[in-house]
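[RESIDUES AND BACKBONE]
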Amino acid sequence: MSVYQHCPRCAASLQTENQGGFDRRVCKTAGCGFVFWDNPTPVVAAVVEHEGKLLLARNIAWPPGTFALITGFLERNEIPDEAVQREVAEETGLQPLAANFIGHYSFERMNQLIIAYHVPAQGEVRLNEELAEWKHVSFDEAEYWPAATGLALRDWLRARGHQPREMEWPRRR
């Protein structure tokens, strides 16, 4: 449930009320009527294919050895397939060649809707300030993590005839 305790419009205390089959935080103050819908945030994710391999990256906030897909928030008025190509270019310095839809996945822990694409890309990798390092992984050696972007990677690999292994989760060192 939400961290909202007070109405952002009138500062009154919010109450929990069932609306549309879900518990929502609502303002009962006359004339206000604020409802915190807590809708998921749309995020694009890229299974980047570079030089015949997968390109995975580590965010600067993640522990060493933790690699994942390139992701980013969908901006206002942005089309998802354009957004994912923008993210690949911004975060890796690569030139995206296309964006092919894989699927959409719920990432409940972060309340996000992941919209995943396969993005073939070319060029020299030049990471931006968000990423600490990157690596290539062959399709046959790829492992997937059992959550949103990992499931997108799994589905893309399986659709191409690969049998990826599920990695131990949470990852043990």
